[in-house]
Hints:
- Belongs to the TRAFAC class TrmE-Era-EngA-EngB-Septin-like GTPase superfamily. Septin GTPase family.
- By secondary structure, this protein is an alpha/beta fold.
- The protein has nine helices and nine strands.
- The strands form two sheets. It has a six-stranded mixed sheet, with helices on both faces. A three-stranded antiparallel sheet has the order 7-8-9, with no helix packed on it.
- It has a domain of 273 residues: P-loop containing nucleotide triphosphate hydrolases (Rossmann fold, 3-Layer(aba) Sandwich).
- Helix 3 runs parallel beside helix 4 and helix 7 packs across helix 8.
Amino acid sequence: xGNNLVDAEGVKVRTVKLLASQNVGFESLPVQFVNKxxxxxxxxxxxxxxxTGIGKSTLINSLFNYDFKLPPGDYQHDSVTLxxxxxxxxxxxxxxxxxIIETKGYGDQLNMTDSCQxxxxxxxxxxxxxxQEESQVVRRLSDYxxxxxxxxxxxxxxxxxxxxxxxxxxxxxxxxxxxxIPVIARGxxxxxxxxxxxxxxxxxxxxxxxxxxxxxPEDDGQVADxxxxxxxxxxxxxxxxxxxxxxxxxxARARVxxxxxxxxxxxxxxxxxxxxxxxxRVNMDHLMQTTNLRHYEVYRDRRMTELGxxxxxxxxxxxxxxxxxxxxxxKYRQKEEETRTSFVNKVREKxxxxxxxxxxxxxxxxHRKAEFSDHxxxxxxxxxxxxxxxxxxxxxxxxxxxxxxxTIKGSKKN
Length: 414
Ligand code: GTP
Ligand code: MG
């Protein structure tokens, strides 16, 4: 009964229904949420693992029905690298930030373990980036561009016999780190009977090696039945094609062979359509959630333990995160204090340096001044000496003139 509602502190909550005729506006709240989410768009990061030329790019193109023009590999890799391409897709009013990461050189090396190690490191690096962001003092998670891998499509070669040791080893390493969906590539190269037994074989080996792969959730009422069927189809046998042909009166992505046509969207031909539906139409959201709530959580727990938030401590996540943030805050303050001190010290040093320089200049100035006044004194002395000489000269001159005049007078007298 709505009238008996109480809040957390026991205060009675009254139910009020506003008059429909006097709309105040907050009924648009869900629309506001949706608009906000839609405007920002969704992030989906796909990792495609498979040997060179197995059909990774073609599968991605077929899935999104778009030619992404992903560059092909060249069999010249010394080690496995990851080739990352980002796109912004729009379907209706929904924007999807899609990142496709393809392996280059996977399976081409003689040293098998190295093949997978780089992939594992890449996945962990993305978790670490998110972890750092989450424990920042000033968090910007709302504009954070999530790079964590949401799904790993693992393309298995259609050998029809055992799963290759490399694939098993690699899946084992990725197990519990990422949502693995194993896929049989080039499904058109096996007969129906071969496919069925190959699928059973793959699942048996996955179980035997205790590899944990992604399973579509069967606990959500709406899609439980559908997902149950999807899980029974794993590993999907897919066929990809970059060509569009006219098949039975409609245009379809298809592979044309001398003996007939494989329409990849025809459910009788392969599992492609069911695979696309399971991946993109029904469970994309669950893949994102699982990445965040399961795989990332495992990574975070590991990091927390490494940082000293051990298992004996209360496993309350908010508490731990708050403490981690406090530690970071402390570090941040300390850093700030250090920066300030070092700045003040620098200023002091500079000040002392300037003072020293001033003193130096001053003493130079005094020295020059003294030199100068010595100089002036000398000039003065020289000047007065010169003046004396001039006076003597004048005196001698006038005496000479006078004596000459006397001589002349005398000589006239004589
Ligand atoms: P790299 O990026 O170079 O490692 O190759 P990739 O794995 O992306 O393979 P890509 O999609 O470029 O396909 C390589 C070749 O395989 C092309 O000629 C495709 O037409 C062909 N191919 C792709 N998918 C299938 C398929 O399902 N069946 C068959 N029979 N051939 C396929
Ligand atoms: Mg490719």
